[in-house]
Amino acid sequence: MKKLALAALGLFVAAGAWAQPVSVSEAGVTPMTDTLIVTDSAIGNGGSLESLAISVLSNGNIALGWEDDKNADVPAGVGLAAAWLLYDQSGTRLTDTVRGHYRNDGTLIGLGGNWAPKINANQFGGGFAYGSTFWDWDGTAEDPSNAAPELPLGTDQDNPAVTTFNNDGSVRHSIFVTYPIDYLTLPGTARMGEPFYLSDGNVCSIAQNGQNTDAVDLFGFASDHKTIIAGVSKDGGEVVAGPVAVQQEDADANIWKGAAPFNGGFAVRYEAGGKVYLRMMNNDLTPMGDSIAMETAAPQLNAGGRGGSTGVDANTNGDVLIAQPSKGTADAPSADNNVFAAVWSKDGSMKLAPKLVSAPQDETLGTGANSADCAIDEAGNFVVVYENKDIVDFTGGSAVCARFFNADGSPATPSFIISGITANDVVADDADPVVDMRNGIVAVLWRDKNFSQSSAGKGEVALRVFASPFGSSSASDWALYN
Q: Has this prediction a pTM greater than 0.70?
């Protein structure tokens, strides 16, 4: 086995190739926890697990979320359509019950009345933004009701809602929206894409606007269609900017997730007219430049549609990372179903051309990857996690793998299997991984059906925490407003 070496400018992997993903120890990565089952008997598991989210907070705690429509063992319970928990970096659960949005009076809003949780730590200070697509206060699908006069929503119509929390999980600001109420109550839906803190302390949310006539009436397009929009408010809901259209393309647009802030602005990855684009925006919602078409800039990344299987992250310096399972190109058909990653600077220039990151490391065979995610640290080093369906000796199914890279794109580790299982243990699908990396902590969440504690045929939400091989790379202290 080749050994990892420490070079003056970072980690590197000696010449040669690992034909298949290795174990965690063989990769030279230090686990901080074992594989932990999140959906244990104390939390419950209805078996309809999706929309996973994770973020490492400034104090090292880890906020994570998921959706489980069939889990009725929750408050107000017709299902757990969006919820979150808090762990520390050693794997200790800090919240004993699932949580979600909160009213002004401190009561928990029904977990069945909003869906698809999104969680993003404040990259410029403490706390995190929790968002979801919200439609009902009670979470009792039979009778949508406007039960909270402080926010006139809940009329059986999707809206992008945010609650912000402190590092210890206490509520910082109860449920609010970053858009004008009279705008959101127009006919049609607006579904949450991503909520996040900006570097000036305001909160932004990206949404897919299904109020289709807005494309012509408000945003100046020639035809009606779904539009990717952004809105900014103070932390707590006083709107300061937006809505504005993020996209330039006069075409139906979609986003599930895929936005990340940096100092002075943020990046949004979205689909419009069946093609994928990236655009940089300032904190005041003015564009930094034109949208970047993956079709020409990075054809390997012109896939993944609305972004449910795609990773997008940025560091505060403005390095924007995208990782995506590819369908290959005419020039590189062997890349089919492998995972590629590329990095842009916030000025729109490409910093790292698309890099094949997934195993096998001989770059000739596909991995059957259906999903990927990524995270980048302040020095530009990054990690990509992905689902791997094609590993020698597998009897079927897939495993979640990870690989670390130096900022110049050189591999810092081989690909390795996250959970600690071996290839021979893989008989079902581990899938949908999400990852975050901050201050030397790497946290991975995925849907697991192979781990020994998994419920047969149902799967679990699983968590594992690692020490970054790059050590702690902290951002400057932007938290002047805290």
A: yes
